[in-house]
Amino acid sequence: MGLASSAIVQTVLTGAALLGAISGMLGAFAVLRRQSLLGDALSHAALPGVCLGFLIAGGRNLGAVMLGAFATGALAALCMMLIIRRTQLKTDAALGIVLSVFFAVGVVLVTVIQGQGGAGSLGLMTFLFGQAAAIQPADLWIMGGVGLVALGLVLALWKEFKLVSFDPDFARAQGFRVTLLEAVLTVMVALAIVVGLQLVGVVLMVALLIAPAAAARQWTRSLGAMVGLSALIGAVAGAVGALISATTRGLATGPVVVLVATAVVIVSLLLAPGRGLVWQAMAARRAQARISDGRVLAALQSVARDHDDRGHRVARGVLATALGAMPTPARLASLERRGLIRATRQPPDPSPHWELTEAGHAEARALSGAPAEPSR
Amino acid sequence: MREDQLHEPDQALHVEDLTVSYGDTPALWDIDLDIPPGVMCAIIGPNGAGKSTLIKAALGLVRPVAGHVRFLGRPVAQMRGQIGYVPQRHSVDWDFPTNARDVVEMGLYRSLGWFRRPGRAARARALAALAEVGMQDYADRQISQLSGGQQQRVFLARALVQDAPILILDEPMAGVDAATEAVIIALLKRLRDAGRTVIVVHHDLTTVQSYFDWMVMLNIRIIAQGPVRETYTPENLRAAYGRHLALIADPAGAAL
Q1: ipTM, interface predicted TM-score of the complex
Q2: Residue A351 belongs to a domain with what CATH number?
Q3: What is the pLDDT of residues A96-110, one digit of tens each?
Q4: Are A233 and A302 contained in the same domain?
Protein backbone atom coordinates (compact mmCIF):
# COMPACT_ATOMS: atom_id res chain seq x y z
CA MET A 1 0.00 0.00 0.00
CA GLY A 2 2.78 2.41 -0.81
CA LEU A 3 0.32 4.10 -3.11
CA ALA A 4 -2.08 5.25 -0.40
CA SER A 5 0.67 7.16 1.32
CA SER A 6 1.81 9.05 -1.73
CA ALA A 7 1.03 12.75 -1.68
CA ILE A 8 -0.99 12.69 -4.89
CA VAL A 9 -3.22 9.91 -3.72
CA GLN A 10 -3.77 11.65 -0.39
CA THR A 11 -4.76 14.84 -2.18
CA VAL A 12 -7.12 12.93 -4.45
CA LEU A 13 -8.66 11.06 -1.54
CA THR A 14 -9.23 14.16 0.53
CA GLY A 15 -10.61 16.15 -2.37
CA ALA A 16 -12.97 13.44 -3.54
CA ALA A 17 -14.23 12.76 -0.02
CA LEU A 18 -14.81 16.48 0.53
CA LEU A 19 -16.63 16.84 -2.75
CA GLY A 20 -18.74 13.75 -2.09
CA ALA A 21 -19.71 15.02 1.35
CA ILE A 22 -20.68 18.45 0.04
CA SER A 23 -22.73 17.17 -2.86
CA GLY A 24 -24.25 14.42 -0.74
CA MET A 25 -25.39 16.94 1.85
CA LEU A 26 -26.81 19.41 -0.69
CA GLY A 27 -28.09 16.64 -2.95
CA ALA A 28 -30.37 15.45 -0.16
CA PHE A 29 -32.19 18.78 -0.28
CA ALA A 30 -32.18 18.83 -4.07
CA VAL A 31 -33.73 15.36 -4.26
CA LEU A 32 -36.38 16.15 -1.65
CA ARG A 33 -37.24 19.35 -3.52
CA ARG A 34 -37.43 17.35 -6.79
CA GLN A 35 -34.66 19.41 -8.27
CA SER A 36 -32.24 16.63 -9.16
CA LEU A 37 -32.55 17.31 -12.87
CA LEU A 38 -31.85 20.98 -12.33
CA GLY A 39 -28.46 19.85 -11.03
CA ASP A 40 -27.94 17.89 -14.24
CA ALA A 41 -28.78 20.90 -16.39
CA LEU A 42 -26.54 23.16 -14.31
CA SER A 43 -23.55 20.85 -14.60
CA HIS A 44 -23.92 20.39 -18.36
CA ALA A 45 -24.36 24.14 -18.75
CA ALA A 46 -21.08 24.68 -16.92
CA LEU A 47 -19.06 23.32 -19.86
CA PRO A 48 -19.16 26.46 -22.05
CA GLY A 49 -18.22 28.45 -18.95
CA VAL A 50 -15.23 26.18 -18.40
CA CYS A 51 -14.11 26.87 -21.98
CA LEU A 52 -14.65 30.61 -21.67
CA GLY A 53 -12.66 30.68 -18.46
CA PHE A 54 -9.94 28.73 -20.24
CA LEU A 55 -9.93 31.18 -23.18
CA ILE A 56 -9.96 34.32 -21.04
CA ALA A 57 -7.32 33.13 -18.60
CA GLY A 58 -5.27 31.85 -21.55
CA GLY A 59 -4.78 28.47 -19.93
CA ARG A 60 -5.92 26.15 -17.26
CA ASN A 61 -6.55 28.42 -14.31
CA LEU A 62 -8.92 26.84 -11.83
CA GLY A 63 -10.31 30.13 -10.53
CA ALA A 64 -11.20 31.39 -14.01
CA VAL A 65 -12.64 28.03 -14.99
CA MET A 66 -14.86 27.88 -11.91
CA LEU A 67 -16.02 31.43 -12.35
CA GLY A 68 -16.91 30.76 -15.98
CA ALA A 69 -18.71 27.55 -15.06
CA PHE A 70 -20.70 29.33 -12.39
CA ALA A 71 -21.60 32.15 -14.79
CA THR A 72 -22.95 29.95 -17.57
CA GLY A 73 -24.66 27.71 -15.03
CA ALA A 74 -26.49 30.73 -13.65
CA LEU A 75 -27.33 31.88 -17.17
CA ALA A 76 -28.78 28.45 -17.92
CA ALA A 77 -30.89 28.54 -14.77
CA LEU A 78 -32.17 31.96 -15.79
CA CYS A 79 -33.03 30.74 -19.31
CA MET A 80 -34.89 27.82 -17.80
CA MET A 81 -36.92 30.08 -15.55
CA LEU A 82 -37.80 32.37 -18.45
CA ILE A 83 -38.85 29.49 -20.68
CA ILE A 84 -41.10 28.06 -17.97
CA ARG A 85 -42.66 31.43 -17.17
CA ARG A 86 -43.05 32.84 -20.68
CA THR A 87 -43.94 29.79 -22.77
CA GLN A 88 -46.30 26.86 -22.52
CA LEU A 89 -43.39 24.43 -22.17
CA LYS A 90 -43.24 22.31 -19.06
CA THR A 91 -40.26 22.08 -16.73
CA ASP A 92 -38.88 18.85 -18.18
CA ALA A 93 -38.91 20.24 -21.72
CA ALA A 94 -37.26 23.47 -20.60
CA LEU A 95 -34.60 21.48 -18.76
CA GLY A 96 -33.95 19.32 -21.79
CA ILE A 97 -33.61 22.24 -24.16
CA VAL A 98 -31.34 24.32 -21.95
CA LEU A 99 -29.17 21.35 -20.98
CA SER A 100 -28.54 20.24 -24.55
CA VAL A 101 -28.05 23.72 -26.05
CA PHE A 102 -25.54 24.78 -23.42
CA PHE A 103 -23.75 21.45 -23.57
CA ALA A 104 -23.59 21.63 -27.37
CA VAL A 105 -22.06 25.10 -27.18
CA GLY A 106 -19.59 23.73 -24.66
CA VAL A 107 -18.56 20.79 -26.84
CA VAL A 108 -18.15 23.10 -29.86
CA LEU A 109 -15.91 25.39 -27.80
CA VAL A 110 -13.87 22.44 -26.55
CA THR A 111 -13.19 21.24 -30.09
CA VAL A 112 -12.42 24.76 -31.31
CA ILE A 113 -9.89 25.30 -28.52
CA GLN A 114 -8.33 21.94 -29.15
CA GLY A 115 -8.13 22.69 -32.87
CA GLN A 116 -6.06 25.76 -32.06
CA GLY A 117 -3.71 23.56 -30.11
CA GLY A 118 -1.65 25.27 -27.46
CA ALA A 119 -0.39 24.21 -24.09
CA GLY A 120 -2.73 22.29 -21.90
CA SER A 121 -5.73 22.47 -24.23
CA LEU A 122 -6.00 18.71 -24.00
CA GLY A 123 -6.78 19.19 -20.30
CA LEU A 124 -10.18 20.48 -21.29
CA MET A 125 -11.34 17.01 -22.18
CA THR A 126 -10.96 15.98 -18.56
CA PHE A 127 -13.81 18.33 -17.67
CA LEU A 128 -16.19 16.09 -19.59
CA PHE A 129 -15.71 13.01 -17.45
CA GLY A 130 -13.35 14.26 -14.76
CA GLN A 131 -9.84 13.22 -13.86
CA ALA A 132 -8.93 12.66 -10.25
CA ALA A 133 -5.22 12.91 -10.92
CA ALA A 134 -5.69 16.51 -12.12
CA ILE A 135 -6.53 17.74 -8.65
CA GLN A 136 -3.96 20.00 -6.97
CA PRO A 137 -3.34 20.45 -3.24
CA ALA A 138 -4.39 24.11 -3.60
CA ASP A 139 -7.80 22.97 -4.89
CA LEU A 140 -8.46 21.38 -1.53
CA TRP A 141 -8.65 24.82 0.05
CA ILE A 142 -11.38 25.87 -2.37
CA MET A 143 -13.30 22.66 -1.76
CA GLY A 144 -12.86 22.99 1.99
CA GLY A 145 -14.04 26.59 1.86
CA VAL A 146 -17.14 25.76 -0.15
CA GLY A 147 -17.81 22.82 2.15
CA LEU A 148 -17.55 24.95 5.27
CA VAL A 149 -19.84 27.63 3.87
CA ALA A 150 -22.40 25.03 2.81
CA LEU A 151 -22.23 23.24 6.16
CA GLY A 152 -22.54 26.52 8.05
CA LEU A 153 -25.58 27.59 6.03
CA VAL A 154 -27.27 24.23 6.38
CA LEU A 155 -26.75 24.23 10.15
CA ALA A 156 -27.79 27.86 10.64
CA LEU A 157 -30.86 27.66 8.38
CA TRP A 158 -31.74 24.07 9.20
CA LYS A 159 -35.40 24.51 10.11
CA GLU A 160 -35.94 27.02 7.31
CA PHE A 161 -34.46 24.66 4.72
CA LYS A 162 -36.51 21.80 6.12
CA LEU A 163 -39.74 23.76 5.93
CA VAL A 164 -39.04 25.08 2.44
CA SER A 165 -38.17 21.60 1.20
CA PHE A 166 -41.29 20.01 2.68
CA ASP A 167 -43.97 22.67 2.18
CA PRO A 168 -42.95 25.91 0.43
CA ASP A 169 -46.55 27.19 0.31
CA PHE A 170 -46.91 26.94 4.06
CA ALA A 171 -43.50 28.53 4.54
CA ARG A 172 -44.55 31.45 2.37
CA ALA A 173 -47.85 31.82 4.22
CA GLN A 174 -45.84 31.95 7.43
CA GLY A 175 -43.86 34.86 6.04
CA PHE A 176 -40.57 33.09 5.35
CA ARG A 177 -38.49 34.44 2.49
CA VAL A 178 -39.07 31.30 0.45
CA THR A 179 -37.66 32.57 -2.83
CA LEU A 180 -34.47 33.66 -1.11
CA LEU A 181 -34.12 30.37 0.76
CA GLU A 182 -34.71 28.37 -2.42
CA ALA A 183 -32.19 30.52 -4.25
CA VAL A 184 -29.61 29.88 -1.52
CA LEU A 185 -30.16 26.12 -1.82
CA THR A 186 -29.89 26.23 -5.60
CA VAL A 187 -26.79 28.41 -5.58
CA MET A 188 -25.14 26.05 -3.12
CA VAL A 189 -25.90 23.12 -5.44
CA ALA A 190 -24.38 25.10 -8.29
CA LEU A 191 -21.29 25.76 -6.17
CA ALA A 192 -20.93 22.08 -5.36
CA ILE A 193 -21.17 21.28 -9.06
CA VAL A 194 -18.56 23.85 -10.00
CA VAL A 195 -16.22 22.52 -7.35
CA GLY A 196 -16.72 18.97 -8.57
CA LEU A 197 -16.27 19.62 -12.28
CA GLN A 198 -12.62 18.75 -12.72
CA LEU A 199 -12.92 15.72 -10.47
CA VAL A 200 -16.12 14.10 -11.74
CA GLY A 201 -16.83 15.97 -14.96
CA VAL A 202 -19.88 17.84 -16.20
CA VAL A 203 -21.60 14.82 -17.71
CA LEU A 204 -21.90 12.70 -14.58
CA MET A 205 -21.62 15.26 -11.78
CA VAL A 206 -25.33 14.97 -11.11
CA ALA A 207 -24.90 11.38 -9.99
CA LEU A 208 -22.89 12.60 -7.03
CA LEU A 209 -25.85 14.79 -6.07
CA ILE A 210 -28.64 12.26 -6.55
CA ALA A 211 -27.20 8.83 -5.78
CA PRO A 212 -26.08 9.41 -2.16
CA ALA A 213 -29.38 11.09 -1.32
CA ALA A 214 -31.46 8.36 -2.94
CA ALA A 215 -29.51 5.70 -1.07
CA ALA A 216 -29.67 7.59 2.24
CA ARG A 217 -33.44 8.07 1.99
CA GLN A 218 -33.86 4.29 2.08
CA TRP A 219 -32.25 3.88 5.49
CA THR A 220 -33.41 6.96 7.39
CA ARG A 221 -36.50 8.34 9.07
CA SER A 222 -35.53 11.96 9.66
CA LEU A 223 -34.13 14.76 7.57
CA GLY A 224 -31.05 15.09 9.80
CA ALA A 225 -30.21 11.41 9.44
CA MET A 226 -30.83 11.51 5.70
CA VAL A 227 -28.60 14.55 5.11
CA GLY A 228 -25.85 13.13 7.33
CA LEU A 229 -25.91 9.67 5.79
CA SER A 230 -26.09 11.15 2.30
CA ALA A 231 -22.95 13.18 3.00
CA LEU A 232 -21.22 10.05 4.31
CA ILE A 233 -22.21 7.92 1.32
CA GLY A 234 -21.14 10.73 -1.00
CA ALA A 235 -17.76 10.96 0.71
CA VAL A 236 -17.19 7.21 0.52
CA ALA A 237 -18.36 6.93 -3.10
CA GLY A 238 -16.24 9.92 -4.11
CA ALA A 239 -13.16 8.68 -2.31
CA VAL A 240 -13.40 5.08 -3.50
CA GLY A 241 -14.17 6.12 -7.06
CA ALA A 242 -11.37 8.68 -7.18
CA LEU A 243 -8.91 6.25 -5.61
CA ILE A 244 -9.67 3.57 -8.19
CA SER A 245 -9.39 6.16 -10.96
CA ALA A 246 -6.17 7.71 -9.67
CA THR A 247 -4.40 4.39 -9.20
CA THR A 248 -5.43 3.01 -12.56
CA ARG A 249 -3.90 4.58 -15.63
CA GLY A 250 -6.29 6.49 -17.87
CA LEU A 251 -9.49 5.74 -16.01
CA ALA A 252 -11.83 8.78 -16.00
CA THR A 253 -13.07 9.50 -12.49
CA GLY A 254 -16.69 10.43 -13.18
CA PRO A 255 -17.84 7.04 -14.46
CA VAL A 256 -16.02 5.18 -11.68
CA VAL A 257 -17.56 7.37 -8.98
CA VAL A 258 -20.98 6.88 -10.54
CA LEU A 259 -20.56 3.12 -10.59
CA VAL A 260 -19.51 3.04 -6.94
CA ALA A 261 -22.40 5.32 -5.91
CA THR A 262 -24.86 3.32 -7.98
CA ALA A 263 -23.77 0.12 -6.27
CA VAL A 264 -24.67 1.71 -2.94
CA VAL A 265 -28.03 2.83 -4.34
CA ILE A 266 -28.85 -0.66 -5.62
CA VAL A 267 -27.99 -2.28 -2.31
CA SER A 268 -30.09 0.34 -0.52
CA LEU A 269 -33.08 -0.04 -2.83
CA LEU A 270 -32.99 -3.79 -2.30
CA LEU A 271 -32.07 -4.26 1.32
CA ALA A 272 -33.05 -1.23 3.40
CA PRO A 273 -35.39 -2.27 6.21
CA GLY A 274 -38.92 -1.01 5.67
CA ARG A 275 -38.37 0.52 2.24
CA GLY A 276 -36.14 -2.01 0.48
CA LEU A 277 -37.65 -4.20 -2.23
CA VAL A 278 -36.48 -7.43 -0.61
CA TRP A 279 -37.84 -6.32 2.74
CA GLN A 280 -41.16 -5.37 1.20
CA ALA A 281 -41.39 -8.62 -0.72
CA MET A 282 -40.77 -10.53 2.50
CA ALA A 283 -43.37 -8.47 4.32
CA ALA A 284 -45.85 -9.13 1.52
CA ARG A 285 -45.12 -12.85 1.72
CA ARG A 286 -45.58 -12.82 5.48
CA ALA A 287 -48.89 -11.01 5.09
CA GLN A 288 -49.93 -13.47 2.38
CA ALA A 289 -48.96 -16.42 4.57
CA ARG A 290 -50.93 -14.98 7.46
CA ILE A 291 -54.02 -14.67 5.32
CA SER A 292 -53.61 -18.23 3.97
CA ASP A 293 -53.06 -19.56 7.49
CA GLY A 294 -56.17 -17.75 8.61
CA ARG A 295 -58.22 -19.30 5.83
CA VAL A 296 -57.09 -22.82 6.71
CA LEU A 297 -57.89 -22.27 10.38
CA ALA A 298 -61.24 -20.70 9.54
CA ALA A 299 -62.15 -23.61 7.27
CA LEU A 300 -61.29 -26.16 9.96
CA GLN A 301 -63.22 -24.16 12.51
CA SER A 302 -66.32 -23.86 10.35
CA VAL A 303 -66.36 -27.60 9.62
CA ALA A 304 -65.93 -28.25 13.34
CA ARG A 305 -68.78 -25.88 14.07
CA ASP A 306 -71.00 -27.59 11.52
CA HIS A 307 -70.45 -30.84 13.40
CA ASP A 308 -70.84 -29.17 16.77
CA ASP A 309 -67.56 -30.76 17.82
CA ARG A 310 -64.52 -28.59 18.64
CA GLY A 311 -62.18 -31.53 18.20
CA HIS A 312 -63.73 -32.65 14.93
CA ARG A 313 -61.25 -34.42 12.69
CA VAL A 314 -61.49 -33.04 9.18
CA ALA A 315 -60.63 -35.23 6.24
CA ARG A 316 -58.41 -34.06 3.44
CA GLY A 317 -61.18 -33.86 0.88
CA VAL A 318 -63.49 -31.99 3.23
CA LEU A 319 -60.80 -29.40 3.97
CA ALA A 320 -60.06 -28.97 0.27
CA THR A 321 -63.75 -28.45 -0.46
CA ALA A 322 -64.16 -25.94 2.35
CA LEU A 323 -61.15 -23.96 1.15
CA GLY A 324 -61.68 -24.33 -2.57
CA ALA A 325 -58.20 -25.83 -2.88
CA MET A 326 -55.95 -28.13 -0.92
CA PRO A 327 -53.52 -26.24 1.32
CA THR A 328 -49.87 -27.03 0.60
CA PRO A 329 -48.21 -29.62 2.84
CA ALA A 330 -45.72 -26.93 3.89
CA ARG A 331 -48.53 -24.67 5.11
CA LEU A 332 -50.10 -27.52 7.10
CA ALA A 333 -46.74 -28.50 8.51
CA SER A 334 -46.07 -24.92 9.55
CA LEU A 335 -49.45 -24.63 11.28
CA GLU A 336 -48.80 -27.92 13.03
CA ARG A 337 -45.35 -26.78 14.16
CA ARG A 338 -46.95 -23.68 15.66
CA GLY A 339 -49.33 -25.93 17.59
CA LEU A 340 -52.46 -24.56 15.90
CA ILE A 341 -53.54 -27.80 14.23
CA ARG A 342 -52.86 -31.46 14.84
CA ALA A 343 -52.57 -34.19 12.22
CA THR A 344 -54.52 -37.28 13.22
CA ARG A 345 -56.19 -40.33 11.76
CA GLN A 346 -59.84 -41.24 11.86
CA PRO A 347 -59.88 -45.06 11.80
CA PRO A 348 -60.81 -46.96 9.79
CA ASP A 349 -60.15 -44.21 7.20
CA PRO A 350 -56.41 -44.46 6.38
CA SER A 351 -56.12 -40.93 4.93
CA PRO A 352 -54.74 -38.03 7.01
CA HIS A 353 -57.11 -35.84 9.02
CA TRP A 354 -56.62 -32.55 10.84
CA GLU A 355 -58.16 -31.05 13.92
CA LEU A 356 -57.86 -27.58 15.48
CA THR A 357 -56.05 -27.33 18.79
CA GLU A 358 -57.36 -24.94 21.43
CA ALA A 359 -54.67 -22.46 20.36
CA GLY A 360 -55.87 -22.94 16.80
CA HIS A 361 -59.43 -22.10 17.78
CA ALA A 362 -58.25 -18.94 19.53
CA GLU A 363 -56.08 -17.91 16.57
CA ALA A 364 -58.92 -18.49 14.09
CA ARG A 365 -61.19 -16.29 16.21
CA ALA A 366 -58.55 -13.56 16.44
CA LEU A 367 -57.84 -13.61 12.71
CA SER A 368 -61.50 -13.50 11.74
CA GLY A 369 -62.18 -10.70 14.19
CA ALA A 370 -59.35 -8.53 12.93
CA PRO A 371 -58.66 -9.14 9.25
CA ALA A 372 -54.93 -9.13 8.64
CA GLU A 373 -53.71 -6.11 6.71
CA PRO A 374 -50.63 -6.26 4.55
CA SER A 375 -48.17 -3.95 6.27
CA ARG A 376 -45.86 -1.64 4.36
CA MET B 1 -53.98 53.76 1.11
CA ARG B 2 -51.40 53.86 3.88
CA GLU B 3 -50.23 50.49 5.08
CA ASP B 4 -50.04 51.47 8.73
CA GLN B 5 -53.65 52.57 8.88
CA LEU B 6 -56.33 50.09 9.82
CA HIS B 7 -58.73 49.51 6.96
CA GLU B 8 -62.00 47.72 7.73
CA PRO B 9 -60.74 46.43 11.11
CA ASP B 10 -64.15 44.98 11.94
CA GLN B 11 -63.83 42.25 9.32
CA ALA B 12 -61.76 39.13 9.88
CA LEU B 13 -61.14 39.09 6.13
CA HIS B 14 -61.80 42.02 3.84
CA VAL B 15 -61.14 41.71 0.12
CA GLU B 16 -61.64 44.57 -2.30
CA ASP B 17 -61.47 44.65 -6.11
CA LEU B 18 -59.33 41.51 -6.15
CA THR B 19 -58.49 40.25 -9.62
CA VAL B 20 -56.11 37.38 -10.30
CA SER B 21 -55.26 35.95 -13.68
CA TYR B 22 -53.14 33.08 -14.93
CA GLY B 23 -51.94 34.20 -18.33
CA ASP B 24 -54.94 35.61 -20.21
CA THR B 25 -57.65 33.80 -18.29
CA PRO B 26 -58.97 35.50 -15.19
CA ALA B 27 -59.06 33.16 -12.21
CA LEU B 28 -60.79 35.70 -10.01
CA TRP B 29 -62.60 38.76 -11.24
CA ASP B 30 -63.22 41.88 -9.17
CA ILE B 31 -63.84 40.12 -5.88
CA ASP B 32 -65.36 42.14 -3.05
CA LEU B 33 -65.72 40.11 0.08
CA ASP B 34 -66.19 40.48 3.83
CA ILE B 35 -66.04 37.71 6.41
CA PRO B 36 -66.84 38.86 9.97
CA PRO B 37 -64.87 37.55 12.93
CA GLY B 38 -66.10 34.52 14.84
CA VAL B 39 -67.87 32.74 12.00
CA MET B 40 -67.23 29.40 10.36
CA CYS B 41 -67.30 30.24 6.69
CA ALA B 42 -67.46 27.93 3.69
CA ILE B 43 -66.04 29.03 0.38
CA ILE B 44 -67.89 27.01 -2.23
CA GLY B 45 -68.13 26.95 -5.98
CA PRO B 46 -67.63 24.55 -8.90
CA ASN B 47 -64.24 23.25 -10.01
CA GLY B 48 -62.15 26.05 -11.45
CA ALA B 49 -64.19 28.70 -9.65
CA GLY B 50 -61.02 30.06 -8.06
CA LYS B 51 -61.62 28.92 -4.48
CA SER B 52 -58.02 27.95 -3.76
CA THR B 53 -56.78 30.93 -5.75
CA LEU B 54 -58.84 33.23 -3.54
CA ILE B 55 -57.20 31.80 -0.45
CA LYS B 56 -53.74 31.91 -1.94
CA ALA B 57 -54.21 35.50 -3.10
CA ALA B 58 -55.49 36.47 0.35
CA LEU B 59 -52.40 34.90 1.92
CA GLY B 60 -50.10 36.57 -0.57
CA LEU B 61 -49.02 33.28 -2.20
CA VAL B 62 -50.40 34.40 -5.57
CA ARG B 63 -49.81 37.89 -6.86
CA PRO B 64 -53.06 39.64 -7.78
CA VAL B 65 -53.43 41.87 -10.83
CA ALA B 66 -55.46 44.33 -8.77
CA GLY B 67 -57.12 44.71 -5.42
CA HIS B 68 -56.17 44.47 -1.80
CA VAL B 69 -56.74 42.21 1.17
CA ARG B 70 -56.96 42.98 4.89
CA PHE B 71 -57.11 40.65 7.88
CA LEU B 72 -58.64 42.40 10.90
CA GLY B 73 -57.78 45.66 9.17
CA ARG B 74 -54.14 44.88 8.44
CA PRO B 75 -52.24 43.68 5.36
CA VAL B 76 -51.35 40.00 5.46
CA ALA B 77 -47.64 40.74 5.87
CA GLN B 78 -48.37 42.11 9.34
CA MET B 79 -50.67 39.22 10.22
CA ARG B 80 -48.54 36.18 9.41
CA GLY B 81 -48.42 34.93 12.97
CA GLN B 82 -52.14 35.27 13.42
CA ILE B 83 -53.30 33.20 10.48
CA GLY B 84 -53.16 29.41 10.61
CA TYR B 85 -53.04 27.93 7.12
CA VAL B 86 -53.84 24.35 6.15
CA PRO B 87 -52.84 23.81 2.50
CA GLN B 88 -54.29 21.04 0.37
CA ARG B 89 -52.93 17.71 1.54
CA HIS B 90 -51.70 16.78 -1.93
CA SER B 91 -49.59 19.91 -2.21
CA VAL B 92 -46.69 18.21 -0.41
CA ASP B 93 -44.72 14.98 -0.77
CA TRP B 94 -45.68 12.77 2.17
CA ASP B 95 -42.64 10.59 1.58
CA PHE B 96 -40.55 13.31 3.22
CA PRO B 97 -38.37 11.71 5.93
CA THR B 98 -40.03 12.97 9.09
CA ASN B 99 -42.63 12.13 11.69
CA ALA B 100 -45.97 13.66 12.65
CA ARG B 101 -44.66 15.66 15.62
CA ASP B 102 -41.91 17.21 13.53
CA VAL B 103 -44.45 18.40 10.94
CA VAL B 104 -46.58 19.97 13.65
CA GLU B 105 -43.55 21.75 15.08
CA MET B 106 -43.18 23.47 11.70
CA GLY B 107 -46.15 25.58 12.74
CA LEU B 108 -43.91 27.10 15.42
CA TYR B 109 -40.87 27.85 13.26
CA ARG B 110 -42.04 31.39 12.58
CA SER B 111 -42.40 32.27 16.23
CA LEU B 112 -38.95 30.83 16.96
CA GLY B 113 -37.30 33.28 14.62
CA TRP B 114 -34.20 32.79 12.51
CA PHE B 115 -31.48 30.33 13.56
CA ARG B 116 -33.26 28.99 16.65
CA ARG B 117 -34.27 25.35 16.78
CA PRO B 118 -37.48 24.01 18.35
CA GLY B 119 -36.85 22.76 21.89
CA ARG B 120 -38.74 21.05 24.67
CA ALA B 121 -41.48 23.69 24.83
CA ALA B 122 -42.15 23.39 21.11
CA ARG B 123 -42.28 19.62 21.45
CA ALA B 124 -44.85 19.85 24.24
CA ARG B 125 -47.01 22.24 22.25
CA ALA B 126 -46.81 20.02 19.18
CA LEU B 127 -47.89 16.99 21.20
CA ALA B 128 -50.80 18.97 22.65
CA ALA B 129 -51.91 20.00 19.17
CA LEU B 130 -51.69 16.38 17.99
CA ALA B 131 -53.84 15.37 20.97
CA GLU B 132 -56.43 17.97 19.97
CA VAL B 133 -56.90 16.21 16.63
CA GLY B 134 -56.79 12.76 18.21
CA MET B 135 -53.36 11.88 16.85
CA GLN B 136 -51.34 11.74 20.07
CA ASP B 137 -50.54 8.05 19.53
CA TYR B 138 -49.01 8.77 16.13
CA ALA B 139 -46.51 11.47 17.13
CA ASP B 140 -43.46 9.37 16.23
CA ARG B 141 -45.00 7.73 13.17
CA GLN B 142 -43.42 8.41 9.79
CA ILE B 143 -45.76 10.66 7.84
CA SER B 144 -45.54 8.34 4.82
CA GLN B 145 -47.19 5.63 6.93
CA LEU B 146 -50.21 7.72 7.91
CA SER B 147 -53.54 7.35 6.14
CA GLY B 148 -54.94 10.27 4.19
CA GLY B 149 -57.23 11.24 7.02
CA GLN B 150 -54.39 11.06 9.53
CA GLN B 151 -52.19 13.21 7.31
CA GLN B 152 -54.95 15.77 7.11
CA ARG B 153 -55.20 15.84 10.90
CA VAL B 154 -51.46 16.37 11.19
CA PHE B 155 -51.78 19.33 8.83
CA LEU B 156 -54.60 20.70 10.94
CA ALA B 157 -52.53 20.27 14.10
CA ARG B 158 -49.71 22.21 12.47
CA ALA B 159 -52.09 25.16 12.03
CA LEU B 160 -53.59 24.76 15.51
CA VAL B 161 -50.22 24.84 17.25
CA GLN B 162 -49.88 28.48 16.23
CA ASP B 163 -52.90 29.39 18.31
CA ALA B 164 -53.98 31.83 15.60
CA PRO B 165 -57.28 33.76 15.73
CA ILE B 166 -57.89 33.13 12.03
CA LEU B 167 -57.73 29.66 10.45
CA ILE B 168 -57.79 29.09 6.70
CA LEU B 169 -58.20 25.55 5.38
CA ASP B 170 -58.00 24.47 1.74
CA GLU B 171 -60.26 21.46 1.09
CA PRO B 172 -59.59 19.76 4.45
CA MET B 173 -62.35 17.24 3.80
CA ALA B 174 -61.05 16.08 0.41
CA GLY B 175 -60.39 12.34 0.43
CA VAL B 176 -60.68 11.80 4.17
CA ASP B 177 -62.78 9.17 5.87
CA ALA B 178 -66.02 9.96 7.69
CA ALA B 179 -64.41 9.64 11.12
CA THR B 180 -61.75 12.21 10.28
CA GLU B 181 -64.32 14.56 8.78
CA ALA B 182 -66.33 14.37 12.01
CA VAL B 183 -63.25 15.04 14.13
CA ILE B 184 -62.22 18.00 11.98
CA ILE B 185 -65.67 19.57 11.95
CA ALA B 186 -66.19 19.15 15.68
CA LEU B 187 -62.83 20.75 16.32
CA LEU B 188 -63.45 23.64 13.93
CA LYS B 189 -66.82 24.30 15.53
CA ARG B 190 -65.20 24.37 18.97
CA LEU B 191 -62.66 26.89 17.70
CA ARG B 192 -65.43 29.00 16.18
CA ASP B 193 -67.35 28.89 19.45
CA ALA B 194 -64.19 30.07 21.20
CA GLY B 195 -64.22 33.16 19.00
CA ARG B 196 -61.86 32.17 16.19
CA THR B 197 -62.64 32.80 12.57
CA VAL B 198 -62.57 29.64 10.47
CA ILE B 199 -62.51 29.88 6.67
CA VAL B 200 -62.81 26.62 4.75
CA VAL B 201 -62.68 25.87 1.05
CA HIS B 202 -65.37 23.23 0.82
CA HIS B 203 -66.57 21.06 -2.04
CA ASP B 204 -69.50 19.16 -0.59
CA LEU B 205 -72.69 21.19 -0.97
CA THR B 206 -74.78 18.71 1.00
CA THR B 207 -72.98 19.46 4.27
CA VAL B 208 -72.73 23.24 3.98
CA GLN B 209 -75.84 23.87 6.05
CA SER B 210 -74.93 21.53 8.88
CA TYR B 211 -71.27 22.56 9.12
CA PHE B 212 -71.16 26.30 8.47
CA ASP B 213 -72.88 29.49 9.55
CA TRP B 214 -71.40 31.79 6.89
CA MET B 215 -70.69 31.19 3.24
CA VAL B 216 -69.15 32.69 0.13
CA MET B 217 -70.29 31.39 -3.25
CA LEU B 218 -67.73 31.82 -5.94
CA ASN B 219 -67.47 31.27 -9.64
CA ILE B 220 -64.63 33.50 -10.83
CA ARG B 221 -66.85 36.31 -9.51
CA ILE B 222 -68.66 36.46 -6.21
CA ILE B 223 -72.11 34.94 -6.64
CA ALA B 224 -73.36 35.49 -3.10
CA GLN B 225 -72.07 35.87 0.43
CA GLY B 226 -73.57 36.07 3.88
CA PRO B 227 -75.11 33.89 6.58
CA VAL B 228 -75.79 30.37 5.30
CA ARG B 229 -79.46 30.68 6.27
CA GLU B 230 -79.98 33.55 3.83
CA THR B 231 -77.41 32.66 1.20
CA TYR B 232 -77.96 28.94 0.61
CA THR B 233 -80.86 29.41 -1.81
CA PRO B 234 -81.71 27.56 -5.00
CA GLU B 235 -81.28 30.74 -7.04
CA ASN B 236 -77.77 31.34 -5.74
CA LEU B 237 -76.76 27.70 -6.13
CA ARG B 238 -78.01 27.68 -9.68
CA ALA B 239 -76.18 30.90 -10.39
CA ALA B 240 -72.94 29.41 -9.07
CA TYR B 241 -73.18 25.89 -10.42
CA GLY B 242 -75.34 26.27 -13.52
CA ARG B 243 -77.39 23.29 -14.56
CA HIS B 244 -75.34 20.57 -12.85
CA LEU B 245 -77.37 20.75 -9.72
CA ALA B 246 -79.94 18.02 -10.19
CA LEU B 247 -78.60 15.92 -7.35
CA ILE B 248 -78.39 18.60 -4.72
CA ALA B 249 -81.18 19.03 -2.26
CA ASP B 250 -82.47 22.55 -1.81
CA PRO B 251 -82.75 24.10 1.65
CA ALA B 252 -86.28 22.83 2.10
CA GLY B 253 -85.19 19.29 1.27
CA ALA B 254 -86.85 19.02 -2.14
CA ALA B 255 -84.82 18.51 -5.28
CA LEU B 256 -84.05 21.65 -7.20
Answers
A1: 0.91
A2: 1.10.10.10
A3: 999 999 999 999 998
A4: no
